[in-house]
Design brief:
This protein is an alpha/beta fold and 340 residues long. The chain has one domain: Nucleoside phosphorylase domain (Rossmann fold), CATH 3.40.50.1580. Helices cover 38% and strands 20% of the residues. The protein has ten helices and nine strands. A five-stranded mixed beta barrel has the order 5-8-7-6-9. Helix 3 packs across helix 5. The termini are far apart.
Amino acid sequence: MDNLLLNIKSYLAKSKSPIKSKHNHHNNHQNLNHNHHQNQNSHSPESNDDNHRITHEEIDESVKYLQTKVSIKPTIGIICGSGLGGLANLITEPISIEYKDIPHFPVSTVHGHAGTLVFGYLGKAPIVCMKGRIHAYEGYSLARCTFPIRVMKGLGVETLIATNAAGGLNENFNVTDIMMIKDHIFFPGFSGNNPLRGPNDDRFGIRFPAMNTCYDPKLMKLAENAIEKLKIEKHFRKGVYVMVGGPNFETVAEAKFLRMIGCDAVGMSTVHETMVAHHSGMRVIAFSLITNKIVTDYDSDDKANHEEVLAAAKERSNDFENLIQEIVNNIQNDQIVADN
């Protein structure tokens, strides 16, 4: 019996040893060369980078490339949501660089998202604006989706203003209302799909960041002051935003569940970006433009669609753009006071 046990242990030990062959070595070498070639260019969904981690070296390459193209040192970053690209048109002395020309940068593939990084000024504030964001449903990993946020940080951005188009879950919300995000629910994270997953690089941020302070209270107060000055209080809301994966819109059962757990608006973006910005040490504020009412009635013939999202965004775009500009002015003035 003892000999039998020894033989079994010996067999199991051998079976755990990796099998080496020239064929496998050749394939591995090919894969390494293929990945190396991909990393020299902007990323597309076809890059198959679901497990790809963002490296500090990639960030540095992107930052250095952009610094050769622009002399502006932005302190505020803005993300334009679906149909809200007009925000970039407010920027003076604009310099536009397409995502596809930036090393390692993901490329936007969705209608309503131009895929351009715009540098310039809002008032006296140096700005970098994402005219078009990256979504996980396009085929990118969440880490790759948030690559632009890491680049913004590398460029010197201290404050992120994120915007999105969202479906209204709260029964008191109306289409074209502007909701300031006071908190979020991140459904992809419940299944372990998180932009911070994997080995942590301390140069990016700490391993276990707290998220109860993700949205900066002082920035929210500045936003409320801007709302009051612009006299658009009747269209202003505060609420909880929930991020789902998409690209499909919600079923009736899903919509009822999201409303039941306290969600006011639902969309397919933003949270992973604000999480990474907060992880990086940026101050964060975010807004949703309510572009449609989520269907919660089985007898309803209404169907959510991307076209109504773009139409609603166009209708409220002037108020939204004025709000962002006023917030930037408030941030700039607040910074001047703090410096003095």
